[in-house]
Design goal:
Elements: E1 3-4, H1 10-19, H2 25-36, H3 50-59, E2 60-61, E3 69-72, E4 78-83, E5 95-103, E6 106-110, E7 114-116, H4 125-128, E8 131-134, H5 137-145, E9 155-158, H6 168-179, E10 191-195, H7 212-219, E11 223-227, H8 233-239, H9 248-255, E12 266-272, H10 280-289, E13 296-301, H11 315-327, E14 331-334, E15 357-358
Parallel strand pairs: 1-2, 6-9, 9-10, 10-11, 11-12, 12-13, 13-14
Antiparallel strand pairs: 3-4, 3-15, 4-5, 5-6, 7-8
Length: about 350
């Protein structure tokens, strides 16, 4: 099997060039073709010698995965389907989705980091399908580089399928490519990672090691969004099984050790369910939980995913909830729903083939 180059760092490409007897500066040229010019073939890399292109073609591949289908919402949101079912690579017949969200002069990509998810949130289509595998960096970056709006993207949110901190090495590698000078040159401020809050390592060799959340906050400068959804442990556990292993209180203890008063932001996602987490009692507890933390709460009306007992909170209830938070000094905003008619809104990504048109 040929080695993929997409997702490799400048130093890793230099090592390949030296191993293959190519000049070291060839690595920088390859970086420019991969990450700035988005080349999909070695033949397009015209400032490389013919010998270098032929050698690379014989032993390596770019590694980009094109989208196979797309769906367009009436509000302009566009959902892309990627077939990641290459035989023998652990993804038999599976698909992942990425969502492009236009908003005036911004185009934000909601990117997936896993096929399925092992967190099991009961209100999420991805979580209900189970876990099928981690996406390597090339598959994550393909979502950025292979969609029709690739050159127009202004922001990215790791809020698609999967739990990013459960695939941290590949996610950090993808973010490094996006933000490095030798890569795409984005500012980390253009990127937000969303997580349930994996606040510890699980396993016999976890002793003394940093949790994925700590690693992300130490090794990356992108923004953080935490999926909170209920301030009470027993109630959060009912809708988010991961609360048993990763209690939100422990996540907050870690977050409070870091500085969010500067350019980096932390926010909390709060999906609102009728009669379940939308009462004044919940609002007051949430305000108390976040007191003194420089943050924002994004209130999201639940999107019906079918075959569930959950119902969306009425808008009057959401507004009253927001007012309680604001009076307590917590910045709270209502997030507008986008792409709901094509099942592209928060919690609706499922990786199903239906509902798309072919490329």
């Amino acid at each position: 099997m040929k080695k993929k180059l997409l997702g490799l760092t400048l130093d890793e490409l230099k090592a390949i060039c030296l191993e293959e007897g190519l000049p070291a500066f060839t690595a920088k040229q390859i970086c420019q073709w991969l990450y700035r010019k988005r080349a999909v073939s070695f033949s397009a890399m015209t400032n490389l010698s013919l010998k270098a292109r032929e050698l690379l073609e014989s032993k390596y591949e770019i590694g980009a995965v094109p989208f196979s289908r797309f769906a367009r919402s009436k509000d302009g949101t566009k959902k892309y389907l990627f077939d990641i079912g290459e035989k023998g690579e652990g993804f038999p017949g599976n698909f992942i989705e990425a969502v492009m969200i236009p908003d005036e002069d911004r185009k934000t990509l909601c990117v997936s980091s896993q096929a399925g998810c092992r967190m099991g949130c009961r209100f999420c289509m991805t979580g209900r399908q189970g876990f099928h595998g981690n996406l390597e960096a090339a598959r994550i970056l393909s979502q950025f580089f292979c969609i029709e709006e690739a050159e127009e993207l202004t922001n990215a949110v790791f809020m698609g399928m999967g739990e990013p901190l459960d695939n941290l090495d590949n996610v950090l590698r993808a973010i490094e490519v996006l933000t490095a000078d030798w890569g795409c040159g984005w500012s980390p401020k253009r990127i937000t990672l969303s997580s349930i809050g994996i606040n510890r390592l699980v396993g016999s060799n976890a002793q003394g090691k940093k949790s994925p959340l700590e690693r992300f906050l130490d090794e990356c400068k992108a923004h953080l969004a935490i999926s909170l959804h209920n301030p009470f442990h027993p109630e959060r556990l009912q809708i988010m099984p991961s609360e048993a292993a990763f209690p939100i209180e422990e996540t907050l203890k870690i977050i409070r050790r870091y500085d969010f008063t500067g350019q980096r932001r932390v926010s909390f996602e709060y999906i609102m369910f009728k009669g379940l987490n939308d009462t004044p009692r919940h609002a007051r507890a949430l305000a108390s939980m976040l007191k003194g933390l420089e943050c924002r709460v994004n209130l999201i009306r639940f999107h019906d995913i079918g075959d569930t007992e959950f119902l969306p909170s009425p808008m009057m209830t959401i507004t009253a909830f927001q007012e309680i938070l604001q009076k307590a000094g917590i910045t709270a905003t209502l997030r507008a729903s986008r792409g709901q008619d094509i099942e592209a809104a928060c919690g609706m990504l499922s990786g199903k083939e239906s509902g798309f048109v072919k490329e």
